[in-house]
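LAB NOTEBOOK - FOLDING QUEUE
OPERATOR: T.R.
BATCH SIZE: 2
PURPOSE: Compare the predicted structure-token outputs for two unrelated chains run back to back under identical settings.
PRIORITY: normal
REVIEWER: second-year student, initials M.K.

ITEM 1
FIELD SEQUENCE / FIELD STRUCTURE:
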Amino acid sequence: MEKIIDESKQGESLVLENKEQNTRKLYIESYGCAMNFSDSEIVASILSNQGYNTTQKLEDADLVLVNTCSIRDKAEQTVRKRLEKYNAVKRINPGMKVGVLGCMAERLKSKFLEEEKIVDLVVGPDAYKDLPNLLAEVEDGRDAINVILSKEETYGDISPVRLNSNGVTAFVSITRGCDNMCTFCVVPFTRGRERSRDPQSILEEINDLWARGFKEITLLGQNVDSYLWYGGGLKKDFDKASDIQKATAVNFANLLDMCAKAQPHMRIRFSTSNPQDLTLDVIETMAKHHNICKHIHLPVQSGSNRILKAMNRLHTREEYFQLIDNIKRLIPDCAISHDLIAGFPTETEQDHQDTLSLMDYVKYNFGYMFTYSERPGTLAERKMEDDVPEDVKKRRLAEIVQLQREHSEIRTKQYLNTVVEVLIEKESKKSNKEWSGRTSQNSVAVFPKAQYIIGDLVKVKITDCTSATLIGEAIGLSDNQ
């Protein structure tokens, strides 16, 4: 994977505020998407009530959990290497129990218990409430597994702990699962059908976060634009709903509006969008509210109509351009980021050139770029030959990455000699004398600390930049503080 974005927390061990009465120690690592990190917060909340405090020291743990990703083969290989590390520690501490959570758990199921001798339990993304029962089985000397996909579970009734939190930003999950069935993707098989969370529970979580001092939330889902609440149930069953349910249904634009009004000083982001579902009313809602951040992550995957069809992406190149045009018309300063795959089966040089020309049209602010990775069980793996040579994939990826660097530099230079709002999140990695934060457009900005503190929303005059970072000086607190 190549990326032009500095947001990765891959493999981060997570820690929350401990309870004095808890006597056991939990070590949890998360890999993959933001939803996995959000799920780890749910898991830690459940286990906190079972007597577990978290620790950052693997060797001290009574229970080790790794929350896994199956989206790329490289992600799975990384997890297997971590399991080898756990095995080495377990030889010293045989009382330690090890569990695999998340998408790899769902995809590989009992193979982990059969092949990975150090794994004591395997828990899929919809089975975390069963963890206390599974741990009881493990303590009785039995292997434990629950990877049944749910049609109802949203964890909306659980208050997540905020793991390794800066006290400023937080994730709020609004949907689970995905119905899109892209031919390259395992998510529908590992996370099940789309279902949405009660909007009232979402608003309650946001209100609680604001009361606790958080300044920004990210609404999370595999496809947030598919959010649809009509009293419960799967999105695919909406046609069977009553007339009253349909009349009072809440879609994503409605939810976004409700969240923005509930806490008008809370910055709101969302991820991830799908081009086929990002409707005009969502863009209009973003334009209407200052506190909804002006950034849309809009995965396109390819610029070729032929490849998009092979991927079962339900949008064309031309429809994507129309969507981009509408975003720029209604929100001229909106940043747009992407996901792109190089070397999908049957991809030709012309298909690749179509991708490059699409990038030239949009000039994305940043993005995630990958070579195609065949995932077992997907339609692409079952029906298509992975026929693009690895050296060709790597060369095409390098060309995509280089073009994105050029576009990122164009986008950051647009901010020179302008004033932007930055929410301070942490110290700069390069200097303890500087703060680091993000603009509404999700650009990272660094500037001297002066009298400001983490959580301040400040006005920053941009004086310099790289392709990924804005550099400037704070000139005062924002009026939107």
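ITEM 2
FIELD SEQUENCE / FIELD STRUCTURE:
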Amino acid sequence: MSVSRRGVMKGGAAGALSIALAGSLDSIFQTSAGADVGEAYGYGPLVADPKGVLDLPKGFSYRELSKEGDPIGNGVVVPGHHDGTATFPGSRPFRTRLVRNHEQSNNGTRAVAGPELTYDPAANGGTTTLEVDHEGRLLSQYVSLAGTAVNCAGGRTPWGTWLTCEETEGFTGQTKSHGWVFEVDPKGRRTRPEPLTALGRFAHEAVAIDPHTHIAYLTEDAAKPFGLFYRFRPRAHRGEYHSYQAGGQLDAMYIPDVPDLSTVQEPGTRLKVKWLPVPDPSAAATSTRKQFDKITRSQKLEGAWWGHGKAYFVASFSKTASGAAADHAGQVWVYDPRHETIELELIFKPGGRFDGPDNITVSPYGGGVMLAEDGDGEQHLIGTTRANKPFAMARNAFNDSEFTGVTFSPDGRVLFANRQEGPGVTFAITGPWHRLRG
């Protein structure tokens, strides 16, 4: 994918390829030749923020919510390293709840909660739950899970909870094992600091869930060796809080003759997959990804998202210098459970203008997407139009920290996104969303 970072910010020259999501979700991420990135598309050029925080198009504004270190009450402050986020209906009409991850182990501004919400007192990660009004103004917030580690991404369940994933296999000083998935009730009534052990212990990144079968698809961001793509088939199908605790079968994806997904470089390539049972999902003695003689791996498996009957998952980059079989600056794959195939939907070429795809959400305006960039140099929120024209929705004017947790409110009025650090903060972006051009 070859569209310039600075060119997008300034409304500059045309790029060779674009992100596309038009009409059917089958076309998500398909490459599109000759896409422009001029100021005529999207919501117009970015306007420099006089505060030097967040550049947005004319007519849009932002609020800074829940900044790292802000007081919550009783000596508790907002934890650091804001990451994956999901939105849910609020306690009243026109309100929204957000559940937000904090990607830190025994470092950073600690997530502090009572023992009824704390898993391991030695770990500083966790989640916070926020409630905002229809304009994105903060009404309340609290630490909704504490004592977990490196809470990176996760996934929203069909039954209205948040699965927060630990991207670690442990750290020095821990008092309990780590590398698990925890479930958070956005209403705050049922959350318990108990891992969903059936989902396996590994360096979890994200999870996408089939709303009909409740099968979960999980990514692993790990090295030496690289991570795997997993499938969890639950024993219980009732679809309610902690239903995964009843157990099930954890499998790993295997494609014969493709030991490394980075070797696939042509969009549209479709591969038949097999699923191999993970011998010991608890990884009591050996990491799950090391329990196979033959398996398919990928460097930097990141985001996952379910749509149109398929599971989409992202690899942020691959580098031969790090031991990968081939180089790329990002891949997006789609798994079709009906045909048991995966297909390469998009590839970012090294040296292009965009790199490091990570969090993504579908825009309710025009069928496009909003993508959180986690690459080198400047960081943007990138959108696409009805005609698949890419545009810069926002630029981090404050520092080079990545954007995370990009997601719309349930009513589509507010776009939320986090600056991960320096300090971490959540932005609530509002404006004339219906004026999308192109």
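REVIEWER COMMENT (ITEM 2): Residues 8-68+356-438 form one domain.
FOLLOW-UP: none requested
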